[in-house]
Design goal:
Layout (H helix, E strand, L loop, with lengths): L1 H16 L16 H9 L13 H4 L12 H8 L7 H53 L5 H77 L1 H13 L7 H5 L1
Length: 248
């Protein structure tokens, strides 16, 4: 039990420190680096927060002071504080929560990639449009061969620089996605390990409780047990009737 309460406390602290971030519209890529955007969007996903609809019935049995940040894993551990639910029921609910959490993480990664592709396309379109406008302006002017050569040389330099920067941005973005995904997987594995250990202890207590209940039910329905109780009662000395009873 001490180990269980200790784990509950740990998970509650994790829930407090790793606050689930709400959905964001996201600032433009020019305002922050791709890696910063990825961290802002995904770091908050490395936690298991409560789904109030899925756990509304369970939460009714948990005291208000123990509902710290609606941490789902802490909630399941608290439910294991009393031997009521079957181990398979608790495990099933935990798996449902983790599957939902993994899906939410994947959805956010997909949304980040879609957003990045859109912003990347806008930057490329804007750059190419600017380059074309510069060329059109240049063609309307009278320029000698040297000026023309320098102009197109500058255009080529700007083009190479732009696409090199875009390549670095994309690399930075994908690296951060991979790093956050790796951290998320490690976090989920650690939580699974901790949960499995607590479930093992709970299962042992649950089965011991079931054996005790079965033993009590067996004794109460056993005819030989009832006969023994009757024999004990028969052997007891009879109680003399009172004076009033003798007079009648």
């Amino acid at each position: 039990m001490k180990s269980l309460l200790k784990s509950v406390g740990i998970f509650c602290l994790v829930g407090c420190s790793l606050v689930l971030m709400s959905c964001r519209t996201g600032s433009s890529v020019q305002e922050s680096t791709p890696s910063a955007q990825v961290r802002e969007e995904l770091e908050g996903e490395i936690s298991l927060k409560a789904d109030r609809e899925a756990l509304s019935e369970l939460r009714a049995a948990i005291p208000e002071e123990k509902k710290q940040n609606n941490d789902e894993l802490a909630l399941l551990l608290q439910l294991m504080g009393e031997v009521k639910l079957k181990p398979s029921d608790i495990q099933g609910r935990y798996q449902t929560l983790t599957q939902k959490h993994r899906k939410k993480f994947r959805d956010r990664v997909m949304r980040l990639r879609d957003q990045y592709r859109r912003e990347e396309g806008k930057r490329r379109e804007s750059f190419l449009k600017e380059q074309k406008e510069l060329r059109d302006d240049f063609k309307r002017q009278k320029s000698d061969r040297e000026q023309t050569r320098e102009f197109f040389k500058d255009q080529d330099r700007r083009r190479q620089e732009f696409f090199a920067n875009e390549k670095d941005r994309r690399k930075d973005f994908e690296s951060e996605i991979q790093a956050q995904s790796k951290d998320f997987d490690s976090y989920m594995r650690e939580k699974q390990k901790e949960f499995s250990e607590q479930l093992r202890l709970y299962s042992k207590r649950y089965h011991e409780s079931e054996k005790e209940k079965s033993k009590k039910n067996s004794n109460s329905s056993d005819p030989s047990h009832a006969l023994k109780e009757f024999e004990v009662m028969k052997d007891k000395a009879s109680t003399p009737l009172g004076a009033g009873a003798e007079g009648n």
